[in-house]
Amino acid sequence: MATGARAVLLVELVLALAGGALHHLQIQGDIEFRSLTATTLLVAGSGAIVFGLLCLGLLRRFAGTEKRADVLAAAASVALFPVLLWFSYFIGRSGGYCIKEFPDGSERDFTCVPQEPGVHLLVDDISSYLGWPALGAGAITAMFIGAAFAGSQPDRGDSTFLRRNLTCAILVSAVPAVWFALDLSDTSKTETAWTALAVLVVIVPPAIHAIRRRAQLERVRKAGLRPRL
Prior knowledge:
By secondary structure, this protein is mainly alpha-helical. The chain has six helices and three strands, in the order αααβββααα.
């Protein structure tokens, strides 16, 4: 595995462990951090990236071709993300959940964290962002992927650039996709800020690595050399 990929792996591993510890303290009521959505995405996102990079390192040793290793590692990472997301979501709701009615007649789901007998802390969880908000986020990501395909047409004969462009597109689309989902679900400004920060923290290391790698491959191509992967 390249040095840059190892660095991203270590950073994401630290984020996954720190996010898991924060998530546990939060659902136990030891800290009053009110956004389970942020910690859920922090754990699921960083965990999926770690798993994908580990798979990439192993598959490049044993797979028949590097292209096959890239595809399998990406598929493994994408497949694991919703599993971790739902797992963290249900763990977060292990203490029960409440439905709060607001003065305007609207209702919202919260995770109820017991503080003391008869007293619960209402914590925002990810339940409000399932359904239409999730579909909206998926549509935003699909638009970025389509733009990556369109931008890779001049390099049709070299799948390396297409793969790098798709990686960049998926990572960069995470912030607007999540922001759109939060806006569609009409979340509070505090919840939006914490969630957006969690997504940024998770995707910045691999996004920087992918963009730098794309720029490196572009320089190699212009120099007329064969890129080393």
